[in-house]
């Protein structure tokens, strides 16, 4: 079925069944391959995107559920100050090893800082615990989130 899905602020036309997971729409229909396929079962977090600002797993989100909603992917993350700050902190702290999980990690971290601009270590660990990194970059991910939280705090103060 032909439909329009709003991705990173732009309407995109796709002709796919209602039950096709958003992940397939992104990667196979729109060739936006920044969002990764890990498990396909909502277990690893590699496919995390934002839907109306909330971190969701695109591998189990049917495209038919997205009518009127805003999808943000890793390709759109740097358009937001907190997303840009996270990407900068990721580079500064040399977080990535193989990099495969990192788009999902960044999307989840950005959703965390939007709802809690100054998380403590325990809150970061709890929020990020569902995003698996087979290279075990967890320590550097935590450090980078702490650095970027200063920008998130300032953003909130300026609103
Ligand atoms: S690919 Fe979606 S959670 Fe693993
Ligand atoms: S950096 Fe390799 S899986 Fe996370």
Q: What layout of secondary structure does this protein have?
A:
Blueprint (H helix, E strand, L loop, with lengths): L1 E6 L2 E6 L6 H8 L18 E4 L2 E4 L12 E3 L8 H12 L9 H14 L5 H8 L9 H21 L1
Parallel strand pairs: 1-5
Antiparallel strand pairs: 1-2, 3-4, 3-5
Helix pairs in contact: 2-3, 2-5, 3-5
GO molecular function: 2 iron, 2 sulfur cluster binding; metal ion binding; oxidoreductase activity
Protein name: (2Fe-2S)-binding protein
Keywords: 2Fe-2S, Iron, Iron-sulfur, Metal-binding, Oxidoreductase
Distance between the termini: 40 Å
Fraction in beta strands: 5-15%
Global outline:
globular
Largest sheet: 5 strands, mixed
Output the helix-strand order.
Answer: EEHEEEHHHH
Side by side, the strands of the main sheet go 2-1-5-3-4
The percentage helix is 25-40%
Rg calculated over all Cα atoms = 15 Å
For the residues shown, what is the average pLDDT? 96
Number of helices: 5
- What is the number of E strands? 5
Structural class: alpha+beta
- Outline the low-pLDDT stretches: none
What small-molecule ligands were found? FE2/S2 (inorganic) cluster
Describe this structure in words.
This is (2Fe-2S)-binding protein. InterPro entries: 2Fe-2S-bd, 2Fe-2S-bd_dom_sf, 2Fe-2S_ferredoxin-like_sf, 2Fe-2S_ferredoxin-type, 2Fe2S_fd_BS, Beta-grasp_dom_sf, Diverse_Oxidoreductases. The chain has 5 helices and 5 strands; from the N terminus they run ββαβββαααα. With 159 residues, it is an alpha+beta fold. 40% of the residues lie in helices and 14% in strands. The N and C termini lie far apart (40 Å). The chain has a 5-stranded mixed sheet with strand order 2-1-5-3-4, sandwiched between helices. Helix 2 packs across helix 3 (102-115) and helix 2 runs antiparallel to helix 5. Bound molecules: FE2/S2 (inorganic) cluster (FES) (2 copies).
């Amino acid at each position: 079925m032909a439909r329009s899905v709003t991705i990173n602020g732009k309407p995109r036309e796709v002709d796919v069944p209602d039950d096709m997971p958003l992940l397939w729409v992104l990667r196979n229909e729109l060739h936006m391959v920044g969002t990764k396929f890990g498990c396909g079962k909502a277990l690893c977090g590699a496919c995390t995107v934002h839907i109306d600002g909330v971190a969701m797993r695109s591998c189990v989100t049917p495209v038919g559920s997205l009518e009127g909603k805003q999808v943000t992917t890793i390709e759109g993350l740097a358009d937001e100050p907190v997303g840009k700050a996270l990407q900068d902190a990721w580079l500064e702290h040399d977080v990535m090893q193989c990099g495969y999980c990192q788009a999902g990690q960044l999307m989840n971290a950005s959703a965390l800082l939007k709802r809690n601009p100054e998380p403590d270590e325990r809150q970061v660990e709890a929020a990020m615990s569902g995003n698996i990194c087979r290279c075990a970059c967890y320590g550097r991910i935590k450090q980078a989130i702490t650095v970027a939280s200063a920008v998130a705090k300032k953003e909130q103060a300026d609103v």
